[in-house]
Specification:
Order of helices and strands: HEEEEEEEEEEEEHEEEEEEEEEHEEEHEE
Distance between the termini: 86 Å
Radius of gyration: 32 Å
Shape: elongated
Largest sheet: 8 strands, mixed
Strand content: 25-35%
Helix content: 10-25%
Strand order of the largest sheet: 1-2-3-5-7-9-10-11
Protein backbone atom coordinates (compact mmCIF):
# COMPACT_ATOMS: atom_id res chain seq x y z
CA UNK A 1 0.00 0.00 0.00
CA UNK A 2 2.81 2.42 0.87
CA UNK A 3 4.52 1.67 -2.46
CA UNK A 4 1.27 2.45 -4.30
CA UNK A 5 0.99 5.80 -2.55
CA UNK A 6 4.57 6.62 -3.42
CA UNK A 7 3.94 5.71 -7.04
CA UNK A 8 0.87 7.97 -7.18
CA UNK A 9 2.87 10.83 -5.68
CA UNK A 10 5.59 10.44 -8.27
CA UNK A 11 3.01 10.46 -11.06
CA UNK A 12 1.34 13.59 -9.70
CA UNK A 13 4.67 15.39 -9.34
CA UNK A 14 5.53 14.38 -12.88
CA UNK A 15 2.24 15.74 -14.18
CA UNK A 16 2.72 19.00 -12.28
CA UNK A 17 6.12 19.43 -13.90
CA UNK A 18 5.00 18.35 -17.38
CA UNK A 19 6.16 20.56 -20.22
CA UNK A 20 5.96 20.23 -24.01
CA UNK A 21 9.21 18.79 -25.31
CA UNK A 22 10.39 21.84 -27.28
CA UNK A 23 9.73 24.23 -24.36
CA UNK A 24 11.30 24.92 -21.00
CA UNK A 25 9.10 25.26 -17.94
CA UNK A 26 10.10 26.59 -14.55
CA UNK A 27 9.39 29.01 -11.75
CA UNK A 28 10.90 32.46 -11.33
CA UNK A 29 9.96 35.25 -8.94
CA UNK A 30 6.78 33.38 -8.08
CA UNK A 31 5.67 33.04 -11.72
CA UNK A 32 5.27 29.71 -13.47
CA UNK A 33 6.90 30.24 -16.84
CA UNK A 34 6.76 28.24 -20.05
CA UNK A 35 9.36 29.44 -22.54
CA UNK A 36 8.72 28.24 -26.09
CA UNK A 37 10.34 31.17 -27.95
CA UNK A 38 12.68 30.59 -30.91
CA UNK A 39 11.66 26.94 -31.34
CA UNK A 40 10.49 27.04 -34.98
CA UNK A 41 7.03 25.98 -33.83
CA UNK A 42 4.28 25.91 -36.46
CA UNK A 43 1.43 25.37 -33.97
CA UNK A 44 0.75 25.96 -30.28
CA UNK A 45 2.03 22.82 -28.50
CA UNK A 46 -0.07 20.90 -25.99
CA UNK A 47 0.80 19.45 -22.61
CA UNK A 48 1.41 22.61 -20.56
CA UNK A 49 1.03 22.50 -16.78
CA UNK A 50 -2.29 24.07 -15.77
CA UNK A 51 -0.54 26.46 -13.38
CA UNK A 52 1.48 28.29 -16.06
CA UNK A 53 1.12 32.05 -15.64
CA UNK A 54 3.57 33.26 -18.30
CA UNK A 55 3.84 31.75 -21.77
CA UNK A 56 6.23 32.93 -24.46
CA UNK A 57 5.71 31.72 -28.03
CA UNK A 58 7.53 34.63 -29.68
CA UNK A 59 9.72 34.28 -32.76
CA UNK A 60 8.20 31.07 -34.09
CA UNK A 61 6.33 30.21 -37.28
CA UNK A 62 2.76 30.15 -36.01
CA UNK A 63 0.34 30.98 -38.83
CA UNK A 64 -2.94 31.02 -36.88
CA UNK A 65 -4.47 30.67 -33.45
CA UNK A 66 -7.42 28.23 -33.48
CA UNK A 67 -10.31 28.25 -31.05
CA UNK A 68 -9.32 26.83 -27.66
CA UNK A 69 -5.60 27.22 -28.37
CA UNK A 70 -4.88 28.11 -24.73
CA UNK A 71 -7.55 26.09 -22.94
CA UNK A 72 -4.85 24.19 -21.00
CA UNK A 73 -3.54 27.35 -19.31
CA UNK A 74 -6.54 29.18 -17.79
CA UNK A 75 -4.35 30.94 -15.19
CA UNK A 76 -2.25 32.68 -17.82
CA UNK A 77 -1.40 36.29 -16.97
CA UNK A 78 1.13 37.06 -19.71
CA UNK A 79 1.09 35.77 -23.29
CA UNK A 80 3.82 36.71 -25.75
CA UNK A 81 3.22 35.93 -29.42
CA UNK A 82 5.27 38.59 -31.22
CA UNK A 83 7.28 37.95 -34.38
CA UNK A 84 5.31 35.03 -35.76
CA UNK A 85 3.42 34.68 -39.03
CA UNK A 86 -0.06 34.76 -37.54
CA UNK A 87 -2.70 35.84 -40.03
CA UNK A 88 -5.89 34.91 -38.19
CA UNK A 89 -7.04 34.59 -34.59
CA UNK A 90 -10.19 32.47 -34.43
CA UNK A 91 -13.11 33.06 -32.09
CA UNK A 92 -12.44 31.34 -28.78
CA UNK A 93 -8.67 31.36 -29.12
CA UNK A 94 -8.27 33.88 -26.27
CA UNK A 95 -11.69 33.95 -24.62
CA UNK A 96 -10.74 31.50 -21.83
CA UNK A 97 -7.92 33.71 -20.51
CA UNK A 98 -9.94 35.73 -18.02
CA UNK A 99 -6.85 36.43 -15.82
CA UNK A 100 -4.67 37.68 -18.69
CA UNK A 101 -2.97 41.02 -18.00
CA UNK A 102 -0.46 41.30 -20.88
CA UNK A 103 -0.99 40.24 -24.49
CA UNK A 104 1.60 40.81 -27.22
CA UNK A 105 0.50 40.02 -30.78
CA UNK A 106 2.79 42.55 -32.44
CA UNK A 107 4.85 41.99 -35.59
CA UNK A 108 2.58 39.44 -37.22
CA UNK A 109 0.34 39.46 -40.30
CA UNK A 110 -3.03 39.57 -38.52
CA UNK A 111 -5.91 40.77 -40.68
CA UNK A 112 -8.62 38.50 -39.28
CA UNK A 113 -9.04 38.93 -35.53
CA UNK A 114 -11.84 37.73 -33.24
CA UNK A 115 -12.47 41.06 -31.52
CA UNK A 116 -15.27 39.54 -29.47
CA UNK A 117 -12.68 37.51 -27.51
CA UNK A 118 -11.46 40.75 -25.94
CA UNK A 119 -14.82 41.07 -24.20
CA UNK A 120 -13.71 38.24 -21.86
CA UNK A 121 -10.33 39.78 -21.01
CA UNK A 122 -11.46 42.32 -18.40
CA UNK A 123 -8.15 42.06 -16.47
CA UNK A 124 -6.03 43.07 -19.48
CA UNK A 125 -3.61 45.96 -18.86
CA UNK A 126 -1.27 45.79 -21.88
CA UNK A 127 -2.36 45.06 -25.46
CA UNK A 128 0.21 45.17 -28.25
CA UNK A 129 -1.21 44.72 -31.76
CA UNK A 130 1.20 46.96 -33.65
CA UNK A 131 2.84 45.99 -36.94
CA UNK A 132 0.00 43.87 -38.32
CA UNK A 133 -2.48 44.09 -41.20
CA UNK A 134 -5.54 45.29 -39.28
CA UNK A 135 -7.90 47.40 -41.39
CA UNK A 136 -10.89 47.73 -39.07
CA UNK A 137 -11.71 47.92 -35.36
CA UNK A 138 -15.36 47.45 -34.28
CA UNK A 139 -16.82 50.27 -32.21
CA UNK A 140 -17.33 47.95 -29.22
CA UNK A 141 -14.02 46.07 -29.49
CA UNK A 142 -12.66 47.47 -26.21
CA UNK A 143 -15.91 47.71 -24.25
CA UNK A 144 -14.72 45.39 -21.42
CA UNK A 145 -11.11 46.59 -21.13
CA UNK A 146 -11.58 49.08 -18.30
CA UNK A 147 -8.24 48.05 -16.76
CA UNK A 148 -6.25 48.56 -19.97
CA UNK A 149 -3.40 51.05 -19.55
CA UNK A 150 -1.38 50.70 -22.74
CA UNK A 151 -2.66 50.07 -26.27
CA UNK A 152 -0.43 49.82 -29.34
CA UNK A 153 -2.06 49.89 -32.78
CA UNK A 154 0.66 51.62 -34.78
CA UNK A 155 1.87 50.35 -38.15
CA UNK A 156 -1.36 48.72 -39.27
CA UNK A 157 -3.71 49.46 -42.18
CA UNK A 158 -6.43 51.35 -40.34
CA UNK A 159 -8.30 53.80 -42.58
CA UNK A 160 -10.79 55.12 -40.04
CA UNK A 161 -11.99 54.72 -36.46
CA UNK A 162 -15.57 54.48 -35.25
CA UNK A 163 -16.51 57.35 -32.97
CA UNK A 164 -16.24 56.34 -29.32
CA UNK A 165 -13.84 53.44 -29.93
CA UNK A 166 -11.65 54.42 -26.97
CA UNK A 167 -14.40 55.67 -24.65
CA UNK A 168 -14.57 52.46 -22.52
CA UNK A 169 -10.82 52.61 -21.80
CA UNK A 170 -11.10 54.63 -18.61
CA UNK A 171 -7.66 53.55 -17.32
CA UNK A 172 -5.81 54.14 -20.59
CA UNK A 173 -2.65 56.24 -20.26
CA UNK A 174 -0.70 55.32 -23.42
CA UNK A 175 -1.91 54.95 -27.01
CA UNK A 176 0.25 54.40 -30.08
CA UNK A 177 -1.62 54.67 -33.36
CA UNK A 178 0.87 56.34 -35.70
CA UNK A 179 1.71 55.12 -39.21
CA UNK A 180 -1.76 54.07 -40.32
CA UNK A 181 -3.17 55.10 -43.74
CA UNK A 182 -6.03 57.24 -42.43
CA UNK A 183 -8.76 58.57 -44.71
CA UNK A 184 -9.13 62.17 -43.59
CA UNK A 185 -12.85 62.47 -44.20
CA UNK A 186 -15.68 63.33 -41.84
CA UNK A 187 -15.45 59.95 -40.10
CA UNK A 188 -12.03 60.74 -38.58
CA UNK A 189 -12.75 64.29 -37.36
CA UNK A 190 -13.93 63.06 -33.95
CA UNK A 191 -10.56 61.34 -33.36
CA UNK A 192 -8.66 64.52 -34.14
CA UNK A 193 -10.75 66.38 -31.54
CA UNK A 194 -10.35 63.58 -28.99
CA UNK A 195 -6.57 63.33 -29.49
CA UNK A 196 -6.16 67.07 -28.95
CA UNK A 197 -8.13 67.10 -25.69
CA UNK A 198 -7.48 63.72 -24.03
CA UNK A 199 -5.08 63.20 -21.15
CA UNK A 200 -3.87 59.96 -22.75
CA UNK A 201 -0.28 60.07 -23.97
CA UNK A 202 -0.17 59.69 -27.77
CA UNK A 203 3.47 59.64 -28.98
CA UNK A 204 4.66 60.27 -32.53
CA UNK A 205 1.71 62.48 -33.45
CA UNK A 206 3.74 63.87 -36.36
CA UNK A 207 3.35 60.42 -37.93
CA UNK A 208 -0.44 60.29 -37.54
CA UNK A 209 -1.15 61.57 -41.03
CA UNK A 210 -3.65 61.47 -43.87
CA UNK A 211 -3.21 59.12 -46.80
CA UNK A 212 -6.39 60.16 -48.61
CA UNK A 213 -7.98 62.08 -50.17
CA UNK A 214 -5.03 62.92 -52.38
CA UNK A 215 -5.24 66.65 -51.68
CA UNK A 216 -4.66 65.96 -47.95
CA UNK A 217 -2.00 63.26 -48.35
CA UNK A 218 0.76 63.76 -45.78
CA UNK A 219 -1.24 66.25 -43.68
CA UNK A 220 -0.82 65.72 -39.95
CA UNK A 221 -4.13 64.84 -38.37
CA UNK A 222 -3.67 67.39 -35.59
CA UNK A 223 -3.37 70.11 -38.24
CA UNK A 224 -6.35 69.04 -40.31
CA UNK A 225 -8.59 72.01 -41.08
CA UNK A 226 -12.30 71.80 -40.22
CA UNK A 227 -14.32 69.80 -42.75
CA UNK A 228 -17.93 70.56 -43.80
CA UNK A 229 -19.51 67.53 -42.15
CA UNK A 230 -23.12 66.77 -41.24
CA UNK A 231 -25.09 63.66 -40.32
CA UNK A 232 -27.78 62.53 -42.76
CA UNK A 233 -31.31 63.89 -42.79
CA UNK A 234 -34.19 62.55 -44.86
CA UNK A 235 -37.62 63.77 -45.92
CA UNK A 236 -40.01 61.36 -47.57
CA UNK A 237 -42.52 62.88 -49.99
CA UNK A 238 -45.07 61.34 -52.33
CA UNK A 239 -45.64 62.03 -55.99
CA UNK A 240 -48.23 60.60 -58.38
CA UNK A 241 -45.86 61.02 -61.32
CA UNK A 242 -42.24 61.73 -62.13
CA UNK A 243 -41.02 63.76 -65.09
CA UNK A 244 -38.19 62.47 -67.23
CA UNK A 245 -38.59 58.73 -66.55
CA UNK A 246 -39.98 56.13 -68.92
CA UNK A 247 -42.80 54.33 -67.13
CA UNK A 248 -45.12 51.55 -68.17
CA UNK A 249 -48.80 52.33 -68.66
CA UNK A 250 -50.81 52.10 -65.48
CA UNK A 251 -50.85 53.72 -62.09
CA UNK A 252 -47.44 54.42 -60.60
CA UNK A 253 -46.92 55.30 -56.96
CA UNK A 254 -43.79 57.41 -56.60
CA UNK A 255 -42.06 58.05 -53.30
CA UNK A 256 -39.19 60.50 -53.13
CA UNK A 257 -36.53 60.44 -50.42
CA UNK A 258 -34.86 63.84 -50.18
CA UNK A 259 -31.47 63.22 -48.57
CA UNK A 260 -29.01 65.70 -47.14
CA UNK A 261 -25.66 65.21 -45.41
CA UNK A 262 -21.91 65.51 -45.87
CA UNK A 263 -20.33 63.32 -47.08
CA UNK A 264 -23.15 62.39 -49.43
CA UNK A 265 -25.17 59.62 -47.72
CA UNK A 266 -25.83 56.20 -49.21
CA UNK A 267 -29.54 55.56 -49.76
CA UNK A 268 -31.24 52.25 -48.98
CA UNK A 269 -34.91 51.26 -49.27
CA UNK A 270 -36.54 48.81 -46.86
CA UNK A 271 -39.96 47.59 -48.03
CA UNK A 272 -42.25 45.38 -45.96
CA UNK A 273 -45.13 43.91 -48.00
CA UNK A 274 -47.56 41.01 -47.37
CA UNK A 275 -45.23 38.83 -49.43
CA UNK A 276 -42.14 39.57 -47.35
CA UNK A 277 -39.29 42.05 -47.00
CA UNK A 278 -37.48 43.70 -49.89
CA UNK A 279 -34.10 45.44 -49.46
CA UNK A 280 -32.90 47.75 -52.22
CA UNK A 281 -29.57 49.55 -52.41
CA UNK A 282 -30.33 52.66 -54.43
CA UNK A 283 -30.13 52.95 -57.37
CA UNK A 284 -31.14 49.65 -58.96
CA UNK A 285 -32.33 51.16 -62.27
CA UNK A 286 -31.08 53.77 -64.73
CA UNK A 287 -32.93 56.93 -65.77
CA UNK A 288 -34.99 54.86 -68.23
CA UNK A 289 -36.30 52.57 -65.50
CA UNK A 290 -34.34 49.55 -66.70
CA UNK A 291 -32.33 47.40 -64.29
CA UNK A 292 -28.68 48.35 -63.96
CA UNK A 293 -26.05 45.78 -64.94
CA UNK A 294 -25.43 43.34 -62.11
CA UNK A 295 -28.85 43.88 -60.50
CA UNK A 296 -30.83 40.67 -60.09
CA UNK A 297 -34.36 41.21 -61.39
CA UNK A 298 -37.13 39.04 -62.83
CA UNK A 299 -37.46 41.41 -65.78
CA UNK A 300 -35.65 44.35 -67.32
CA UNK A 301 -37.88 46.67 -65.28
CA UNK A 302 -37.88 45.67 -61.58
CA UNK A 303 -41.07 45.64 -59.54
CA UNK A 304 -39.60 48.37 -57.29
CA UNK A 305 -37.54 50.91 -59.21
CA UNK A 306 -35.05 52.93 -57.16
CA UNK A 307 -33.57 55.87 -59.08
CA UNK A 308 -30.32 57.68 -58.38
CA UNK A 309 -32.17 60.92 -57.54
CA UNK A 310 -33.84 59.30 -54.49
CA UNK A 311 -37.16 58.39 -56.12
CA UNK A 312 -38.79 54.99 -55.78
CA UNK A 313 -41.36 53.96 -58.40
CA UNK A 314 -43.85 51.13 -57.97
CA UNK A 315 -45.45 50.51 -61.40
CA UNK A 316 -48.97 49.03 -61.43
CA UNK A 317 -49.42 49.49 -57.70
CA UNK A 318 -51.80 46.90 -56.23
CA UNK A 319 -52.66 44.94 -53.08
CA UNK A 320 -49.39 43.00 -53.30
CA UNK A 321 -47.45 46.27 -52.96
CA UNK A 322 -49.23 47.42 -49.78
CA UNK A 323 -47.03 47.82 -46.76
CA UNK A 324 -44.39 50.01 -45.14
CA UNK A 325 -41.85 51.85 -47.25
CA UNK A 326 -38.75 53.17 -45.47
CA UNK A 327 -35.79 55.09 -46.85
CA UNK A 328 -32.55 54.96 -44.86
CA UNK A 329 -29.65 57.35 -45.45
CA UNK A 330 -26.21 56.55 -44.00
CA UNK A 331 -22.84 58.27 -43.99
CA UNK A 332 -19.77 58.25 -41.74
CA UNK A 333 -21.52 60.36 -39.11
CA UNK A 334 -24.69 58.34 -38.67
CA UNK A 335 -28.00 57.49 -40.27
CA UNK A 336 -31.56 58.77 -40.62
CA UNK A 337 -34.77 57.04 -41.63
CA UNK A 338 -38.26 58.00 -42.75
CA UNK A 339 -41.21 55.66 -43.36
CA UNK A 340 -44.70 55.67 -44.80
CA UNK A 341 -47.44 53.04 -44.71
CA UNK A 342 -49.33 52.47 -47.97
CA UNK A 343 -52.66 50.65 -48.38
CA UNK A 344 -55.05 50.13 -51.30
CA UNK A 345 -58.81 49.99 -50.61
CA UNK A 346 -61.41 48.96 -53.21
CA UNK A 347 -65.01 50.07 -52.56
CA UNK A 348 -67.46 47.18 -52.35
CA UNK A 349 -64.91 44.62 -51.24
CA UNK A 350 -64.10 43.35 -47.74
CA UNK A 351 -62.24 45.77 -45.48
CA UNK A 352 -62.96 48.83 -47.61
CA UNK A 353 -65.84 50.10 -45.49
CA UNK A 354 -63.60 50.44 -42.43
CA UNK A 355 -61.00 52.39 -44.39
CA UNK A 356 -63.66 54.55 -45.96
CA UNK A 357 -65.23 55.38 -42.61
CA UNK A 358 -61.85 56.33 -41.17
CA UNK A 359 -61.15 58.57 -44.15
CA UNK A 360 -64.51 60.29 -43.75
CA UNK A 361 -63.78 60.72 -40.04
CA UNK A 362 -60.47 62.41 -40.86
CA UNK A 363 -62.16 64.63 -43.41
CA UNK A 364 -64.73 65.67 -40.80
CA UNK A 365 -61.83 66.69 -38.53
CA UNK A 366 -60.43 68.87 -41.28
CA UNK A 367 -57.47 66.56 -42.00
CA UNK A 368 -57.48 66.27 -45.76
CA UNK A 369 -55.03 66.39 -48.65
CA UNK A 370 -53.79 69.24 -50.76
CA UNK A 371 -51.60 69.38 -53.85
CA UNK A 372 -48.61 71.60 -54.53
CA UNK A 373 -46.96 71.50 -57.96
CA UNK A 374 -48.48 68.10 -58.65
CA UNK A 375 -47.06 66.76 -55.36
CA UNK A 376 -49.41 65.26 -52.81
CA UNK A 377 -48.47 65.95 -49.20
CA UNK A 378 -50.08 65.12 -45.85
CA UNK A 379 -51.90 67.93 -44.09
CA UNK A 380 -49.97 67.42 -40.87
CA UNK A 381 -46.75 65.79 -39.63
CA UNK A 382 -48.75 63.01 -37.97
CA UNK A 383 -50.37 61.92 -41.25
CA UNK A 384 -47.93 59.19 -42.21
CA UNK A 385 -50.26 56.60 -43.75
CA UNK A 386 -51.12 56.71 -47.44
CA UNK A 387 -54.36 55.08 -48.62
CA UNK A 388 -54.84 54.72 -52.35
CA UNK A 389 -58.63 54.64 -52.79
CA UNK A 390 -59.62 52.79 -55.95
CA UNK A 391 -63.09 53.46 -57.40
CA UNK A 392 -64.28 51.11 -60.13
CA UNK A 393 -67.12 53.42 -61.11
CA UNK A 394 -67.52 57.01 -60.11
CA UNK A 395 -70.65 56.69 -57.97
CA UNK A 396 -72.23 59.41 -55.84
CA UNK A 397 -70.19 58.48 -52.75
CA UNK A 398 -66.89 58.59 -54.63
CA UNK A 399 -67.77 61.88 -56.24
CA UNK A 400 -68.67 63.40 -52.90
CA UNK A 401 -65.42 62.17 -51.39
CA UNK A 402 -63.35 63.65 -54.20
CA UNK A 403 -65.17 66.97 -53.96
CA UNK A 404 -64.55 67.12 -50.22
CA UNK A 405 -60.84 66.69 -50.69
CA UNK A 406 -59.80 69.09 -53.39
CA UNK A 407 -62.67 69.77 -55.73
CA UNK A 408 -60.81 68.09 -58.58
CA UNK A 409 -58.75 65.04 -59.22
CA UNK A 410 -54.96 65.55 -58.88
CA UNK A 411 -53.27 65.27 -62.29
CA UNK A 412 -51.83 61.89 -63.15
CA UNK A 413 -54.28 59.88 -61.05
CA UNK A 414 -56.78 59.01 -63.79
CA UNK A 415 -55.25 56.06 -65.59
CA UNK A 416 -56.61 52.98 -67.39
CA UNK A 417 -60.21 54.16 -66.91
CA UNK A 418 -59.87 53.95 -63.12
CA UNK A 419 -60.19 56.81 -60.66
CA UNK A 420 -57.43 56.87 -58.05
CA UNK A 421 -57.49 59.26 -55.12
CA UNK A 422 -54.47 59.60 -52.83
CA UNK A 423 -55.48 60.15 -49.22
CA UNK A 424 -53.36 60.53 -46.07
CA UNK A 425 -54.47 59.31 -42.65
CA UNK A 426 -52.70 59.25 -39.30
CA UNK A 427 -53.17 55.53 -38.66
CA UNK A 428 -55.36 52.56 -39.42
Amino acid sequence: MQELRLLCLVVLVGLARACPEPCECGEKYGFHIADCAYRDLKAVPSGFPANVTTLSLSANQLSSLPGGAFREVPRLQSLWLAHNEIRSVAAGALASLSQLKSLDLSHNLISDFAWSDLHSLSALQLLKMDSNELTFIPRDAFRSLRALRSLQLNHNRLHTLAEGTFAPLTALSHLQINDNPFDCTCGIVWFKTWALTTAVSIPEQDNITCTSPHVLKGTRLNRLLPLPCSAPSVQLTYQPSQDGAELRPGFVLALHCDVDGQPAPQLHWHIQTPGGTVEIASPNVGADGRALPGVLAASSRPRFQAFANGSLFIPDFGKLEEGTYSCLATNELGSAESSVNVALATPGEGGEDVLGRRFRGKAAEGKVCYTVDNEVQPSGPEDNVVIIYLSRARGPEAAATAEGVSGKQPPGLLLLGQSLLLLFLASF
